[in-house]
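Hey Z.,

So I finally got round to the 3-hydroxy-3-methylglutaryl-coenzyme A thing we talked about over coffee. Here's the setup:
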Amino acid sequence: GLPGRVRIYEVGARDGLQNEKAVVPVEVKAEFIRRLAATGLGTIEATSFVHPKWVPQLADAEQLYPEVADLPVELPVLVPNERGLDRALALGARRVAVFASATESFAKANLNRTVDEALAMFEPVVARAKAQQVGVRGYLSMCFGDPWEGPVPVPQVVKVCRALLDMGCDELSLGDTIGVATPGHVQALLTALREAGVPVSVIGVHFHDTYGQALSNTLTALQQGVTTVDSSAGGLGGCPYAKSATGNLATEDLVWMLQGLGIDTGVDLGRLVATSVWMAAHLGRPSPSRTVRALSHQ
Ligand code: HMG
Ligand code: MG
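And the result:
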């Protein structure tokens, strides 16, 4: 069966904008997040407290976060280490996310660490966040395929998921960073996680649409009991440290499918499309989302 309600975890302002060549002015980012909140989205990832040289597009996190902190929505932020956590906590962040990799190649490229060194870096971050009742998400990248290593073995992914949960993460996000997953692979990973004792209630899915499989993969995950889905308004996105990553699953495409299935999201699709059209004008190119294109005149 399918869930009655799906929690959409909006990543456009972070995963989307981190990959833009042009740096988007902080006022435009704040307006983007405010408009997203007005569509009914309840969880909007705002930014990352990472090294500004690694992700220059999000170097304005200190300016941006206070501009949106009063919105009545969840505003998680990425923190790779204690330095990032300090920066986030200083601004009153109540939800953070660490981001691990299932492969050594991407751990090195994204975090300058081995997989185990990265997990060791996250441990005090998670412990300190939990001690302050700050919610912690554990992202896991390259859960299906890796641009350097090819297909990623399911047991390798399960092992890092377990490590993230054991250190205290409240939820996981299974990342198909480069968008190569197909439904059978999604089903195999979710089955293996269930067999490893990971409750489906803590699992979110994070698909990129490189090969046009993101919606099929999402539907497969919903059929397996997943109720948290990451997506990006207008299909913005990618990852600066994974060359072949293109945009995330578009939130509009997701909402269109869920509405058709009679699944509640709380999102006003018309307002969301208008927001992505507005953002596309700022970025100087049309949204790649099929639903945005169908419902607008861009
Ligand atoms: P490093 O070079 O190993 O850093 O980078 P370090 O620990 O050796 O520290 C070097 C210097 O950086 C020090 O300064 C630190 O203070 C400073 P110095 O003493 O030399 O003056 N520093 C910081 N400054 C500000 N904020 C910080 C911070 N940390 C250290 N947080 C590091 C290691 C983790 C910092 C770096 O690799 C990094 O920032 N990586 C972030 C990469 C990133 O954000 N990638 C995109 C997000 S992941 C993603 O998009 C995938 C996802 O969407 C899911 C999916 O699709 O798969 C989530
Ligand atoms: Mg991503």
